[in-house]
Hints:
Blueprint: E1 4-7, H1 19-29, E2 34-37, E3 42-47, H2 51-61, E4 71-72, H3 88-97, E5 102-107, E6 123-127, H4 132-141, E7 145-146, H5 161-168, E8 174-177, E9 188-191, E10 198-201, H6 207-214, E11 218-219, E12 245-250, H7 253-265, E13 270-274, E14 286-289, H8 296-310, E15 317-320, H9 329-339, E16 344-346
Parallel strand pairs: 1-8, 2-8, 4-6, 5-9, 10-11, 12-15, 12-16, 13-14, 13-15
Antiparallel strand pairs: 2-3, 3-7, 4-7, 5-6, 9-10
Helix pairs in contact: 1-4
The protein binds adenosine monophosphate and magnesium ion.
Magnesium ion (MG) binds next to loops.
Amino acid sequence: MDTKRWSVDKNVDNLTGYPQITQAADLLLNNEVVAFPTETVYGLGANAYSDQAVAKIFEAKGRPADNPLIIHIADEAMISDFVEEIPENAKKLMKAYWPGPLTILLKMKQGVLSEMATPGLSTVGVRMPDHPVALALLQKTKLPIAAPSANSSGRPSPTAAEHVWDDLQGKIAGIVDGGTTGVGLESTVLDCTEDVPVILRPGGITAQQIQEVIGEIAVDPALTDVEQQPKSPGMKYRHYAPDATLVLVDGDRSEIQRLILDKQKEGLKVGVLTTSENASFYQADKVIACGSRDNLNSVAGSLYETLRNFNNAELDLIFSEMFPDEGVGQAIMNRLIKAAGYRVISF
Ligand code: AMP
Ligand code: MG
């Protein structure tokens, strides 16, 4: 398949009339899949009503069939078509954080959306993305768009059109290039069908930001305990992984440097994931500074690109520093732990 590519200036106010948007929207209306930027990562979108369209997402990504898709909308009025009810706390959160990186799980009306988008579930995850290109496509098609991250399943999510191209060229109908994404990590997934809403995946909106609006919330125990079955089907899969084995190190930089030297002595090519503060300290086959510790948002924004860049160095092993497990750090650590397949060395 020939993958079309359009460039769009994300700083333009209203893009709906732009020919790039019209052409991409036409493909979506014809049940083809198209990748587009959101404020979190690039999404791979399809008409959420159509089995034929949604099936193409799973095929292009190689995504396991039991991993549900988030439904994107540009207008809250679209939700009533496929959602039973919106509880008060969900309404408050939509008002506070939509458009934005918060996916809200709601009770779903059966038989409206493609079954494949929410396989065997009674809930549906909905979000309004905060990105002019995504919103223009949603407005133009007037469709709810099912969209997971636009990477091959298991690889780091794409934060630039180039990453989508590397993973999916020839497998999808088009890519709208709107430059690099902002947040860099996926949305927070919050289950609002429970009396006390539950975070199933940490992401762009922090637990504290949610608490500020609705008070008490819970966190899926599977996020901290590997033995538990996660409530979000997608969270059980290995994810975000670079080609080399990634190991997180709960120790200081001298301890990490010692590990690097030990492994190099064994003949391995070793990289280290650090931040701008420590980058000049290390001696390794590849040192990548992923943002700055002073500003965890910069770490979130660069994390997936950093994991992809390690692949160019053909390493055997990568050691990574750890990050504080608070604020956006919770989402960073959640992604790093998964990328590392839960391998952590503690000193
Ligand atoms: P992705 O869009 O690739 O970031 O993946 C979407 C994430 O949202 C996966 O972890 C899914 O398991 C989760 N998700 C989407 N819809 C639901 C739902 N109805 N119930 C539980 N988790 C969901
Ligand atoms: Mg994904």
